[in-house]
Amino acid sequence: MRIAYLDCASGISGDMMLGALVDAGVDLAKVQAGIDSLGLPSCKLVVEEVKKCGFRALQLRVEHEPEHAHRHLHHIEAMIEQSTLSESQRSLAQKIFMRLAEAEAKVHGTTIQKVHFHEVGAVDSIADIVGSAIAWDLLGVEKIVSSPIPTGTGFVEIAHGRCAIPAPATGELLRGIPLAASTVDGELTTPTGAAIVAAMVQQFGPLPAMTVQSIGYGAGQKDFQHPNLLRLIVGETISSDASLPTDTIVLLETNLDDITGEALGHCSELLWQAGALDVALIAIQMKKGRPGVLLQVQCRETDAEKLAVIVFRETTTLGLRRSKIERLTLPRESVQVQTTWGAVAGIVAILPDGSRRFSPEYGSCHQIADKNKVALSAVDEAARRAFAATQDN
């Protein structure tokens, strides 16, 4: 599988992204041709080789005539629709702008149709985003993985005034995305960079096992005491399990021998409510032959500290073991099937050979069984038959 890794040690912006893509081998002339077809006023992509703290990179600038126009989403969508971009390039560009519109609408309390783009509606931002969409399509990777994203600290001036970093739209776009700690005074990740990450990255974590084919470096406009670079690594995965999605999660665990079953049950319930991916209680034998319990909690990296606080508060433990683990996951989707007693929700897992495995949701089956006074097993079986019938048609 052809894969790309974004090393965002100094954050990410639209121009850094496009510079890294060109440095990794994407034809700048083809990107420029796509930008030209948007009908923007005299917009030219210019790249030059620069050094950041002694390391070379390509710095990309968008040269254009001065303008004072602010655009709505439909203005930008119209530009993209009438352009010569391929269908896949249009789709990528529209996906990125839609994520931006959703974030702006959320922070300003309006709708995506009424969102008034300011900075991201300017010629340079449009060129960065559409250019990146074109370049990603030309690069032809099947999967994009990224490191956690640093945002920087301090304040930034935007059209709505002075805002704390990350800017409101940037923060909204980075919901659910692992952030890296940073004490740098300045904006490392911009809304355009965050939108590209939110729209295109499928996995976050360390560099995957791969055979490297090319590396591109995109330089940021500012200078810091560290290399202000975005590194793009492109290659082929070498794992035999490369077709299976992977992600990195945190495992918290502790041994307990002086806690009641009621307290453990209460703690487990709180952990589930707080977003744990899995909670397990395993019987073990501890020192002096005492029976005990191994409490294991699997969670996203962003939830680890919150869940650790719950374990310390609700149990007698004095310490937690914490480790990062990589897991293989099956693609899945939520579905509903119709039974004699009503709709039952379930999860469909896509197996490596392409076949689909359906599992009814316990809560949905329980609700239907309780409402209709039938056995839980009968609802479960009916749901499985209903799903099987949809596969036969």
From TrEMBL:
PANTHER family (UniProt xref): NICKEL INSERTION PROTEIN-RELATED, PYRIDINIUM-3,5-BISTHIOCARBOXYLIC ACID MONONUCLEOTIDE NICKEL INSERTION PROTEIN
Protein name: Putative nickel insertion protein
Keyword Lyase in annotation: yes
InterPro entries documented for this protein: Ni_insertion
Superkingdom: Bacteria
Species this chain originates from: Bythopirellula polymerisocia
UniProt KW Transport keyword: no
UniProt keyword list: Lyase, Nickel
Entry's family note: Belongs to the LarC family.
Any one Gene Ontology molecular-function term assigned to this protein's record: lyase activity
